[in-house]
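Lab notebook, design round three. We kept the backbone fixed and only want residue identities now. Task for the bench partner: fill in a sequence for the structure below.
Input structure tokens:
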């Protein structure tokens, strides 16, 4: 009968050169006390060796608006914008870039690409100089046109500025100054380019970036220790642009009392309340007190507001014998008489030969998509601009 040998367990004490039980206990006690330095390493030291770069914030050293390497690459690949070309070389097969006009373009993060190279990053002082050039030298220039191309160039280069700020974690007055000018530019562009073809200007993309920059700016105000003189202006702009938003309203209501009592914010809150109460007549009357940039922020709400006015009047004055004076209606809507008549007809309301509107709730209809052009009804905004220049609007000299 073949019997298998049972597996034999070897204890620590039976192994060659194995320590005794007493020695094991002594060694374990030393390890927990931190005396066994060979086997135990401080966890902080391990983290420092594993992740040496996590706490290091890159600092830019590029002193030009466009890094030399990028300018050279874009020259070689023929990717220079005409606003960046050296005078006299525009018609060359490969135009040369002007170091005084070239601006670093926005580039999407890509695998294997080092976006933290200090030579490719511009420090805050250079970023402020770049933004100043984009406003004064490009956006406000009277010789560069069409403005849709100007907008697309400035929009892209401002994204590049924002990218450098994020990588370097720029904060403080430099960050606030750049964001303020960016927000003003995007608000002004939303008004000036309203109604342009989508291939030239996309209002949704502009809105997305405007909201991001505005949110970052308001967060800088909330976390910063410095008192900013422009905070009242941008808190009001944020509410006027996001009229009716519960989040924007709550943000303003949570501001310190001294800010809430400022004239600009009190006016913005009154307009927002009129909007929430569906009181278009009061809203349009209060809008007359806004400055130009505030009207630019509000302008996208004007057509819906006037539509509500016509709908309310169509129910309130729906009577065969009722005639409402067109000039009075035009005054309430802050429009010329001809534009007021055109808007009434777009909603199916009749305007007779005596310049009276015949309101009827049965006749009121929504216009076809694309038939109603917001740009035609910008009177209330255009009247505010007067002699203001683009530079004075974006710099805030109003």
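Proposed sequence:
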């Amino acid at each position: 009968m073949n019997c298998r040998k049972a597996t034999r367990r070897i204890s620590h004490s039976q192994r060659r050169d194995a320590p005794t039980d007493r020695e094991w206990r002594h060694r374990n006690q030393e390890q927990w006390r931190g005396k066994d330095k060979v086997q135990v390493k401080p966890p902080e030291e391990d983290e420092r060796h594993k992740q040496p770069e996590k706490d290091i914030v890159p600092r830019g050293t590029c002193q030009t608006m466009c890094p030399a390497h990028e300018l050279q690459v874009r020259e070689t690949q023929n990717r220079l914008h005409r606003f960046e070309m050296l005078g006299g070389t525009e018609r060359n097969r490969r135009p040369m870039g002007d170091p005084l006009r070239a601006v670093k373009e926005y580039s999407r993060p890509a695998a294997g690409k080092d976006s933290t190279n200090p030579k490719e990053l511009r420090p805050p002082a250079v970023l402020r100089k770049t933004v100043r050039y984009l406003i004064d030298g490009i956006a406000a220039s009277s010789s560069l046109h069409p403005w849709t191309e100007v907008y697309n160039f400035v929009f892209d280069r401002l994204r590049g500025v924002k990218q450098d700020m994020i990588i370097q974690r720029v904060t403080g007055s430099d960050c606030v100054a750049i964001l303020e000018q960016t927000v003003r530019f995007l608000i002004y562009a939303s008004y000036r380019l309203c109604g342009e073809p989508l291939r030239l200007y996309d209002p949704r993309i502009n809105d997305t970036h405007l909201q991001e920059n505005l949110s970052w700016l308001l967060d800088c105000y909330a976390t910063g220790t410095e008192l900013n003189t422009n905070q009242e202006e941008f808190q009001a702009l944020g509410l006027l642009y996001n009229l009716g938003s519960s989040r924007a309203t709550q943000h303003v209501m949570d501001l310190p009392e001294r800010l809430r009592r400022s004239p600009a914010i009190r006016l913005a809150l009154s307009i927002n309340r009129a909007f929430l109460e569906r009181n278009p007549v009061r809203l349009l009357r209060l809008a007359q007190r806004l400055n130009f940039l505030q009207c630019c922020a509000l302008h996208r709400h004007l057509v819906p507001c006037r539509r509500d006015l016509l709908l309310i009047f169509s129910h309130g004055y729906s009577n065969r014998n009722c005639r409402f004076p067109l000039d009075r209606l035009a005054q309430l809507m802050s429009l010329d008489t001809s534009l007021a008549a055109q808007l009434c007809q777009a909603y199916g309301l009749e305007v007779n030969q005596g310049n009276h509107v015949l309101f009827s709730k049965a006749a009121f209809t929504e216009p076809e998509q694309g038939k109603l052009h917001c740009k035609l009804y910008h009177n209330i905004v255009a009247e505010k601009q007067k002699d203001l220049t683009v530079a004075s609007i974006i710099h805030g000299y109003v």
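Keep this in mind before ordering anything: Strands lie at 324-325, 350-351, 356-358.
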